[in-house]
């Protein structure tokens, strides 16, 4: 039996190995993520960023190695156990918003709360609150098809943050956006995470954005972390967005 992870790491991984149909994606990756930290995972195309986020967020089982969340093992959980962990504790934002097309923006944001058993009044109240924080309150009654890509992506961020998960995983969340919209989405995402003490794990190939918004970066090259994590300065702005 291995040693338990450090107490102040909300997520901790040791020696993760993961292949996709025989193609190695992660080769012995180890890292710790502190409570409330904004960590950027950087690297070029195919370096293993999505696979690492998938393993840390219990979406993908590891081939070998260990993943711990809050000092509990994730790598030994069953599929159902991993699903429950994801549903109860984690939030996700991808490069595509994947909103439910039949629902309005407000209904999309409220949906995870309603599915978790939150009452209508509280769920829709939280949805209104987060849509306002993300500056898309005027989109509340519109369906995704009626909205701009940048608006849809902000709604996806609101949907991920509304249940106040312990950890938010954002996999290239600004990939389809223009520079100005990229900055805006990342500014809101990171300041909302900081003001609510949420841990944020952000995958991006854009080192400039990573250095600007993350507390720390971990670079992946060909499924490995070749250098120790580099501390970067924490942005001066840490205030809430409302
Ligand atoms: N479902 C899959 N089936 C087969 N190979 C895969 C699969 N997913 C990822 N890979 C391979 O695993 C390696 C790591 O991929 P991954 O998507 O994790 O990298 P990435 O850094 O997120 O890349 P990108 O920036 O392009 O999204 C690559 O060689 C990729 O081709």
CATH superfamily of the domain at 9-98 and 166-231: P-loop containing nucleotide triphosphate hydrolases
Rg of Cα set: 17 Å
SS-based class: alpha/beta
Secondary-structure element series: EEEHEEHEHHHEHEHEE
Q: Identify every distinct bound molecule in the structure, by name, code or SMILES.
A: adenosine-5'-triphosphate
Strand content: 15-25%
Our measurement of the CA-to-CA distance between the termini, rounded to an integer number of angstroms, reads 46 Å
The major sheet is characterized as: 6 strands, mixed
H/I helix tally: 7
Give the low-confidence spans: 238-242
How many extended strands? 10
CATH topology of the domain at 9-98 and 166-231: Rossmann fold
Give the strand order of the largest sheet, numbering strands 1, 2, ... along the chain.
6-7-8-3-9-10
Mean model confidence by pLDDT: 90
Helix content: 25-40%
Folded structure, characterized:
There is one protein chain. This protein has helices at residues 49-56, 79-89, 105-115, 120-133, 149-161, 179-195, 207-213, and strands at residues 9-20, 23-34, 38-42, 64-69, 72-73, 90-93, 167-171, 199-204, 216-219, 230-231. It is of the alpha/beta class and 242 residues long. It has a domain at 9-98 and 166-231: Rossmann fold. A six-stranded mixed β-sheet has the order 6-7-8-3-9-10, sandwiched between helices. A four-stranded antiparallel β-sheet has the order 2-1-4-5, covered by helices on one side. The model is unreliable at 238-242 (pLDDT under 50). The site of adenosine-5'-triphosphate has 13 residues, from strand 2 and helix 1. Residues 20-21, 23, 25, 43, 45-51, 205 line the site of adenosine-5'-triphosphate. Keywords: ATP-binding, Nucleotide-binding. Residues 222-242 are annotated as: Disordered. Residues 233-242 have a biased composition (Low complexity). Residues 11-240 form the ABC transporter domain.
């Amino acid at each position: 039996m291995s040693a338990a992870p450090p107490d102040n790491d909300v997520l901790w991984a040791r020696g993760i190995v993961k292949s996709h149909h025989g193609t190695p994606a992660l080769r012995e990756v180890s890292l710790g993520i502190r409570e409330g930290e904004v960590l950027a995972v950087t690297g070029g195309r195919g370096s293993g960023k999505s696979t690492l986020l998938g393993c840390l967020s219990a979406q993908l089982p590891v081939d070998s190695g260990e993943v711990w969340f809050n000092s509990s093992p994730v790598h030994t959980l069953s599929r159902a156990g991993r699903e429950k962990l994801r549903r109860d504790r984690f939030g996700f934002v991808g490069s595509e918003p994947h909103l439910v097309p039949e629902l309005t923006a407000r209904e999309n944001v409220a949906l995870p709360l309603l599915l978790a058993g939150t009452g209508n009044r509280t769920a829709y109240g939280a949805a209104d609150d987060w849509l306002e924080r993300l500056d898309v309150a005027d989109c509340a009654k519109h369906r995704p098809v009626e909205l701009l890509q940048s608006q849809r992506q902000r709604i996806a961020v609101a949907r991920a943050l509304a249940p106040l998960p312990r950890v938010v995983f954002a996999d290239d969340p600004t990939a389809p956006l223009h520079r100005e919209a990229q900055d805006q989405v990342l500014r809101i995402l990171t300041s909302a995470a900081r003001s609510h003490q949420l841990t944020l794990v952000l995958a991006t190939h854009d080192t400039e954005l990573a250095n600007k918004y993350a507390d720390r970066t971990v670079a992946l090259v060909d499924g490995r972390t070749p250098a120790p994590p580099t501390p970067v300065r924490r942005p001066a702005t840490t205030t809430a967005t409302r």
